[in-house]
Design goal:
Elements: E1 15-18, E2 23-26, E3 31-36, E4 44-46, E5 57-62, E6 70-73, E7 80-85, E8 89-96, E9 105-124, H1 127-130, E10 135-139, E11 142-147, E12 150-157, E13 162-165, E14 168-176, E15 180-189, H2 200-215, H3 225-237, E16 239-240, E17 245-246, E18 269-270, H4 273-283, H5 287-301, E19 311-312, E20 323-324, E21 338-339, H6 350-364, H7 373-387, H8 406-425, H9 433-450, E22 452-453, E23 458-459, H10 475-478, H11 486-499, H12 514-517, E24 525-526, H13 527-539, H14 543-554, E25 566-568, E26 573-575, H15 581-594
Helix pairs in contact: 3-15, 4-5, 4-6, 4-15, 5-6, 6-8, 7-8, 8-9, 13-14, 13-15, 14-15
Length: 607
């Protein structure tokens, strides 16, 4: 069977492995098609996901076979087993990235379970997003690839026959039942000495132990525990351990529209993630992760409130310049491929509410107070007091004209409301509580007057518009109005009627979106929006409907429990960056809400 050069794996065919500092995507065909080293936001050395196999990948599979027969993560871990049942026998490939000491490692262990199977490996390293072919050499039985600042060592235990061909490293070997071969790929800065080599089988046992010890801390024991744990593991895997920041996804430019231009880089940390991430982690018992994320948040937003960004780099970096990578053809032809994200410089007033709600939630959960956090919050409020009436780009980061988005105003109300609540709870904090009450009341009155359509009995996407927005479903969860308020109930029905796709899924806003976001083409149903619908139904007392919708949404996870940003019910395909923290935060939040352990008001990361 000839090796395919084009990447034809559906997005949902990928599984995630990672080491809390970066991550890789492994296809059902045994090919690692995406890996950035040494960080999530580093240049990819395997970029076949958004190009071709000539842009870098690592295929390890039985010779002449296609996709694996079945695969699964080992219980309560991020260790992936892929099994091929071939005419000659059965083989399992175990993929994982151990929590690193200093250097990142990718470990792939091949074990023959019965019969005899011939395996083939093709390693194409292409640094700088698939553009640089490294110089390869063999040293002490190891393959060494070097180009500029990057160096990678590949070794196998035991050593297997390998050869170089067309700037790639190939290996072929046969295994009988009970025999194993372990491959280890290690990255390090080319100007430094090679780091300590890990023992792959010890690393496997330690990785399993580490993940299972972490999962054992989960306080949720409800009916959806298995899917909640898988989503929590995914969120943990998207956490950059050195700082506590959480990336929205480990990928860039997986398209929201097949073949379209709605392709964005999600390898950064959105402030909007803070509220739901904190809520989910705290409700599930993970206070250490919540504390690390809260501390990252405080460091990132420090400074002039008027320069608050909606996203930052992994360490809180502010510069995330966006540029295109022309030599990559895009996933399934969806170009351009982008690196960086210009939305970092948009005005999105809702993030002020989400940041302040996060701080309020952390305080209520009993996280140790930060002495400067209150003063920072007051500075944010002073800026928002002057700015909340301005138009902005809104939750969905539209690239069209600024508007008076209702969701942005509601979250400005949340900022004032949580500040008032904090001062009422702790009078010693100091400050003019009457000032923030007046601001809260003014926002509430304006939204109810200008953001509500009494004829249709629904809130609208922006003042005076006819369009709707799925983010309006967050109004009751934010506490802006009671869940059984007629205006809330009317909004739920209007959103379901006008934004409903197929199978109960929702679009994020009304069709004809090019007028709003300034971009051509359509997009799939946003998965998190349907989780919000389930939340709103549950809060309105329609729990049976909410549970039915939630179970339906769970059916859209791929075979290993992962979700992309969007789903196309017509084709059954995942769309957008993958796996998407936004979607998994929504899943956890809805499961916790249905079990009475709900989180908080904010929506999470958006692109």
């Amino acid at each position: 069977m000839a090796e395919r050069t084009e990447n034809t794996q559906p997005i949902e065919n990928y599984a995630l492995i990672g080491d809390h500092q970066t991550a890789a995507l492994v296809g059902r065909n045994g090919s690692i098609d995406w890996l950035c080293l040494p960080r999530f936001d580093s240049a990819a050395c395997f970029a076949a996901l958004v190009g071709t196999h000539e842009n870098g990948h690592w295929l390890l599979a039985p010779k002449g076979e296609g996709d694996c027969t079945h695969r699964a993560y080992r219980t309560d871990s991020l260790v992936l087993d892929s099994v091929w049942e071939t005419p000659g026998g059965t083989v399992r490939v175990t993929d994982f990235m151990p929590q690193r000491d200093k250097a990142p490692d990718v470990v792939r262990i091949v074990e023959c379970l019965d019969g005899e199977v011939t395996m083939h490996s093709t390693l194409r390293l292409r640094f700088d997003y698939g553009s640089i072919v490294p110089w390869m050499r063999k040293t002490d039985g190891h393959r060494v690839a070097v180009a500029g600042p990057d160096a990678v060592w590949l070794r196998s235990e035991p050593e297997v026959p390998s050869w170089g061909e067309k700037f790639s490293t190939h290996a072929e070997f046969s295994l009988k039942a009970g025999e194993k071969v372990a491959f280890v790929l290690t990255w390090y800065p080319s100007h430094k000495k090679h780091p300590r080599l890990i023992e792959p089988y010890e690393a496997l046992e330690q990785s399993l132990a580490d993940w299972r010890a972490w999962v054992a801390q989960c306080a949720y024991d409800g009916p959806y525990r298995e899917v909640v744990v898988r989503s929590l593991i995914t969120l943990k895997a998207l956490t950059y351990a050195p700082t506590g920041g959480i990336v929205a996804a480990p990928t860039t430019s997986l398209p929201e529209t097949p073949g379209g231009v709605r392709n964005w880089d999600y390898r950064y940390c959105w402030l909007r993630d803070s509220t739901l991430t904190l809520g989910a982690m705290i409700a599930a018992g993970y206070l250490d992760e919540a504390r690390a994320w809260r501390d990252w948040l405080l460091r990132a937003v420090a400074g002039d409130p008027s320069t608050l960004q909606i996203m930052y780099g992994l360490g809180g970096e502010r510069r995330i310049p966006e540029f295109e990578v022309p030599w990559l053809g895009g996933y399934d032809g969806a170009a351009p491929v982008r690196v960086g994200n210009d939305a970092a410089h948009q005005l999105q007033l809702d993030v002020y509410g989400e940041v302040i709600d996060s701080l309020y939630l952390a305080d209520r959960a009993g996280l140790p107070a930060k002495h400067h956090a209150w003063q920072l919050q007051l500075k944010l409020m002073e800026y928002l007091e002057k700015a909340w009436q301005e138009p902005d780009e809104g939750l969905w980061e539209v690239r069209g004209p600024r508007r008076q988005f209702v969701h942005s105003k509601v979250m400005a109300w949340v900022a004032a409301d949580r500040t008032v609540r904090a001062m009422e709870r702790e009078p010693k904090l100091g400050g003019d509580v009457a000032r923030w009450r007046r601001m809260r009341d003014a926002i509430h009155a304006e939204v109810c007057e200008k953001g509500y359509d009494p004829v249709r009995n629904t809130f609208t996407q922006s003042y005076g518009s006819q369009g709707l927005d799925a983010a309006l479903l967050l109004i009751p969860r934010a506490g802006f109005l009671p869940p059984d308020d007629p205006r809330v109930l009317g909004t739920i029905e209007a959103v379901r009627a006008e934004l409903g796709a197929e199978d109960g899924l929702l679009l994020r806003y009304s069709p004809g979106q090019g007028e709003v976001d300034g971009l051509p083409g359509e997009e799939g149903a946003f998965l998190v929006c349907s989780f919000w619908l389930a939340d709103a139904l549950h809060l309105a007392g329609r729990t049976r409907e909410a549970e039915a919708l939630f179970r339906q949404l769970l059916s859209y996870t791929n075979d290993v429990g992962l979700l992309a940003e969007e789903y196309d019910p017509r084709t059954g395909r995942h769309l957008g960056n993958f796996p998407q923290a936004f979607s998994h935060i929504g899943l956890v939040g809805t499961a916790l809400g249905l079990s009475g352990r709900g989180g908080s008001a904010g929506p999470g990361a958006a692109g």
